[in-house]
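Quick one: structure for this chain?
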Amino acid sequence: MVDDLKPGIVMAKSCCVPCAAAGWAHQIPVIQQYMKAHADFYFPAVKDLADFVFV
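Got it. Here's what it folds into:
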């Protein structure tokens, strides 16, 4: 699951679904820190996600 907000990460974790943070969506340090700490993957740019998915 890919999301840019805390509720999506919390939901995925509660269902044991791997989750990735869409880091390009927010430039707010506290949000970036949370997403990096709690998501299974953090992608700062769309290209980073595409490279991960299409490798």
